[in-house]
Design a protein that fits this description.
The complex is a heterodimer of chains A (about 425) and B (about 250). Chain A is α/β, with parallel strands linked by helices and about 425 residues long. Chain A folds into two domains: about 250 residues, no CATH class; about 55 residues, no CATH class. Helix content of chain A is about 20%, strand content about 40%. In chain A, the strands form two sheets. Chain A has a ten-stranded mixed sheet. In chain A, strands 3, 4, 6, 7, 9, 11, 13, 15, 17 and 19 form a ten-stranded mixed sheet that branches. Chain B has a domain of about 170 residues: P-loop containing nucleotide triphosphate hydrolases (Rossmann fold, 3-Layer(aba) Sandwich). A six-stranded mixed sheet of chain B has the order 6-9-10-3-11-12, sandwiched between helices. A four-stranded antiparallel sheet of chain B has the order 2-1-4-5. A two-stranded antiparallel sheet of chain B has the order 7-8. In chain B, a hairpin with a 2-residue loop joins strand 4 and strand 5. In chain B, helix 6 packs parallel to helix 7. The two termini of chain B are about 35 Å apart. The chains are: A alpha/beta (about 425), B alpha/beta (about 250). Chains A and B meet through helix 6 and helix 7 of A and helix 2, strand 7 and helix 3 of B.
Chain lengths: ~425, ~250
């Protein structure tokens, strides 16, 4: 029998009061989730924000905790392209002290310091409601003012066919810096449903790099809320390679003068993969900048979705917003859905958006092949070239090299 | 080396080549001349396997092998090289990586070991120096932001590294000043040996002063209408194609 919305709610009834944090808040989230159901599930309401992505397959799956994980987390961990930097390792949603390597200060577990934050909307986002109901653990990172937190890696390893709902909180004090590298991988059929709340205080810079390389039968849903204050920068890049179905949702609010949000992403999909990148950038303060370039490479019968909304409030004059969605279709059966939206209430702004969809250039293919490069390799060179611009957004060369290696790995899997 | 018999080809059902007969023996350089639209570039594309041209008749064999049955990369592995009249830009593809990928693809096809980045760069730098190309051309993206002359030189660099048995140069001389022209000619001359041939497509006799052909063929309406020695190029330079066009009409 499938778990479904009712299964999640039943489980919630059983654990209410045993989970960390505010029970009333969890109960309110459960009420919202009971009303909404899973997006796309026929029993639930139709939700505009989930127009192109249905979680019906999630509703139909069976998630179950077992006494012992089905796969070796250590083996999966050993194969990861980790950097020589502090790391927090979660296995099946639980913080693992024995696998993590961190400095003493600035790190805490949600399980011990449960705070649901102030930015999330469980009543509007069903998956955030589900997370709020069932979250057990997560990372709480605090970088004090004017401190450089360096690089921190946040790794999620799924080793059981279950559902996990990590709850992360990242706070950068004034003038602080941090590079957060998030990697999610696993084996089996599982649901990772992460919610992260991010605060970037005045003049601080958070670089947020994400590599989603989940198992081919997994479901990955990630909702991030970021609050970017005056002169602060939230610079994010997401690389989606894995999962049967993924939804990456980002809500970034530019709340102080001169703030910047970069929400760049690349999605490489094959087979019947479906990946949805949805963003809402809110300009509520004047003189802020937002930049988004989302590139999709779609093979097989895969489907890529981009929904990007820029909201400019009346007082947010001199807003500079840019949004670009590009898709490269490698097969006649692949599909891309692109829905850029601008909602502008200020009168002195510069906002632009665009979308392109295309196939590989026949002349470029012939040029490479005429030099002896076999067809498959020529295609991969041109696709990598298409992605290069997206990856160029990652300034740190070491991290970029890891992402490039992950892209190579994706190619090898396609060739196999 | 190259034997073409009755080759006919069309694009979008419009006939361009109408029965070409041409033989280029090993070790020889042949020039193909002719007015615009006579089918010169098409010949180069058809021989190197561009898909949008349909071969409607005839044969082309390369060292006894049916060239027309091969994929473009197989033709390259067999030793064919086309220097493009308008070299293609590859944004996001580093020139050095491109050259090394191509060279290693050919080495693999020949059962030779691949060159690593260090070995390759040593080789590439020696060639860029010989061709008077700035080193940074290796670091830039393939042909992106290159001047016309730089693009042509980049084609010659590829030829020098890939060491083909038959090079087809499609107006590699057009848009080049005299110094660049000499460099291109030197690049081809450096490859000249008994097992190397070249088919030089050109509008002008000028290149042939430096790259002296064994034979000159004149292409008109998709057919070779005249063949002769190097003196034919000089003759055409003086008289133009008008007389030939009138003859053919």
């Amino acid at each position: 029998m499938s778990t479904g919305a009712s299964g999640f709610l039943e489980r919630f009834e059983g654990v209410l009061g045993k989970l960390p944090g505010d029970s009333a808040l969890r109960a309110a989230a459960a009420a919202a989730f009971r009303a909404s159901g899973l997006p796309g599930d026929s029993r639930g309401r139709r939700i505009e924000a989930w127009k192109y992505t249905s979680l019906r397959a999630v509703a139909d799956a069976k998630f179950q905790r077992e006494a012992a994980p089905r796969h070796e987390a250590e083996t999966i961990l050993a194969g990861l392209p980790l950097l020589d930097a502090p790391r927090i390792i979660f296995v099946d949603g639980a913080w693992r002290d024995d696998l993590s390597a961190i400095a003493a200060a600035g790190f805490a577990r949600f399980a011990q310091q449960p705070d649901f934050g102030t930015l999330t909307w469980p009543d509007r986002e069903p998956m955030v409601a589900l997370n709020t109901m069932l979250a057990e653990d997560g990372a709480v990172l605090d970088v004090p003012a004017d401190h450089d937190g360096g690089v921190v890696q946040l790794v999620s390893i799924a080793a059981s066919d279950a559902d996990f709902h990590p709850r992360h909180s990242v706070r950068l004090g004034r003038g602080a810096r941090l590079t957060l590298v998030e990697i999610s991988v696993g084996q089996g059929t599982y649901l990772l449903n992460t919610v992260a709340e991010i605060h970037v205080a005045e003049g601080a810079t958070l670089t947020h790099i994400r590599l989603q390389d989940e198992a081919a039968s997994a479901f990955h849903v990630s909702t991030t809320y970021a609050d970017v204050e005056a002169g602060a920068t939230y610079d994010s890049f997401t690389l989606n390679l894995g999962a049967r179905l993924s939804r990456t949702e980002v809500h970034a609010q530019l709340t102080g003068k001169g703030g910047a949000a970069h929400l760049n992403a690349a999605q490489l999909l094959a087979g019947s993969q479906h990946a949805d990148f949805t963003s809402v950038v809110g300009h509520t303060a004047p003189g802020c900048q937002s930049r988004q370039t989302v590139k999709n490479v779609l093979a097989g019968k895969s489907r890529g979705v981009f929904q990007g909304k820029i909201e400019v409030a009346r007082q947010a004059q001199k807003t500079d917003g840019y949004q670009m969605n590009q898709a490269l279709l490698l097969s006649p059966f692949a599909e891309v859905d692109s829905k850029p939206e601008l909602e502008i209430f200020a009168d002195d702004v510069k906002c632009s958006h665009g979308a392109t969809v295309g196939e590989l250039d026949a002349e470029q293919m012939f040029y490479l092949r005429s030099r002896g490069v076999p067809e498959a390799e020529a295609r991969s060179i041109l696709v990598r070239a298409f992605l290069a611009e997206a990856l160029d957004a990652v300034a740190d060369e070491t991290i970029r090299a890891r992402l490039e290696a992950a892209v190579e790995g994706w190619w090898e899997r396609q060739a196999a | 080396m190259l034997e073409i018999r009755g080759l006919a080809a069309s694009i979008n059902e419009k006939p361009i080549l109408n029965g070409i007969d041409l033989e280029v023996p090993a070790g020889e350089v042949h020039a193909i001349m002719g007015p615009n639209g006579s089918g010169k570039s098409t010949l180069g594309y058809v021989l190197s396997g561009r898909e949008d041209y349909a071969v409607t008749g005839g044969t082309a064999t390369f060292n006894g092998v049916d060239l027309l049955a091969m994929e473009p990369e197989q033709r390259a592995a067999a030793g064919l090289f086309l220097a493009f009249q308008a070299p293609i830009e590859l944004p996001g593809v580093n020139n050095a990586n491109f050259l090394r990928t191509a060279l290693n693809a050919l080495r693999r096809a020949h059962g030779e070991s691949e060159l690593d980045a260090v070995q390759f760069l040593k080789l590439a730098k020696a060639e860029t120096k010989r061709l008077a190309m700035p080193d940074d051309m290796l670091k830039r993206n393939v042909n992106v932001g290159f001047s016309g002359g730089e693009k042509k030189r980049n084609e010659v660099l590829q030829m020098a590294l890939l060491r083909p048995k038959l090079a087809i140069l499609d107006e590699t001389d057009s848009g080049l000043d005299i110094d660049a022209l000499k460099i291109v000619a030197d690049g081809v001359n450096a490859l000249r040996r008994p097992e190397f041939s070249a088919l030089v497509i050109t509008h002008h006799q000028r290149l042939l002063d430096y790259l002296v052909p064994n034979k000159v063929h004149v292409l008109l309406h998709g057919r070779i209408v005249r063949s002769g020695g190097p003196e034919l190029a000089k003759e055409l330079e003086k008289s133009g194609y008008a007389e030939l066009i009138a003859e053919a009409a």
